[in-house]
Amino acid sequence: MKKLIAAMLALLLLLGVSALAEAPARKAEFPDNTYVEMPSDYRDGVTQRGKVVIFVYDAQTPDGVAYKKSALVYLPYGYDPEDKETRYNVMYLMHGSGQNNMEFLKGIGAMSSTSMMLDAMIQKGRIEPMILVTPTFNVPGFDESYGANNFWYELENYLIPAFESQYNTYAMDVTPEGIHASRGHRAMGGFSMGSMCTWIVFTHCLDEIAYYMPVAGGFWGSSSAMGPAMQLAESVAAAGYTKDDFIIYAGCGGPGDIAYHGMNDLIDSMCTLTDTFVFCENFADGNLYYTQCNGGHSRVTVELTMYAGLPTFFDN
Fold this sequence. Notes:
The chain has helices at residues 2-12, 113-123, 144-164, 176-181, 193-204, 226-238, 260-271, 299-309; strands at residues 51-60, 66-75, 89-94, 130-134, 186-191, 211-215, 247-252, 288-292. The chain has 316 residues and is of the alpha/beta class. The protein has one domain: Rossmann fold (3-Layer(aba) Sandwich). Strands 1-2-4-3-5-6-7-8 form an eight-stranded mixed sheet, sandwiched between helices. A hairpin with a 5-residue loop joins strand 1 and strand 2 (66-75). Helix 1 crosses helix 3 and helix 3 (144-164) packs across helix 5 (193-204). The relative contact order is 0.20.
């Protein structure tokens, strides 16, 4: 069933689920979801810089083909691997077509606009210190479509267990039970084809992840948006979850974004399925929000969506 859902979404979602679970321990208070523009000088004057490291891990395709992968990792200022008492929320953020794991973090020891934004958000108190992991859906010997369709399998079975066994996230252990228990402290996001990848991860990984940030990726414009919207809703019910068990903060780059119409139509269709998706201005009242910015189809839109949406993410 999972492979069927992934195949159907792969045809419909544009560049442009497991066991019954308890609802996450939601925050007592949420900031409003309403989009807030990041000031142009927001990254200036920051003195507490995080660092970027590389994480290498082994994985296999669903058919058992082994390969080695690497992800870049942003660690916030003050992260101490020996401090097991301090735990960090973690977001896995996927690049778009033709890109790789360096799209958001430029390499070991390097600063990027994304890492500098996180530095500023943390130092200025907009978000709690968090970890950002930027993997790639590219798999040696396979095309991009295959990788984006099947990344959920790698994420669930290899990346999350390998990474969170070494870094101080909220997973007390990396058994399926330990990862499930910490799902409210884990997010998945992505840009363009990475947004498609995020929607597919949603259909498979609700046991592991409660927060989602798809950006600038909806469905193929020649098809009805209701098909993928219903597939997303059906995956929630199939996994034993309800509308109280996840959060989606979606973004798009405005009319100049090639994914604009597809993304709008998908969100509009999701909003008609009110048993599963409840559009709201504050996540105390629902589970879905969608915003527009002026970043076009680019990394800028991802960063602006993160700036607006990350303060609403993660359980207490």
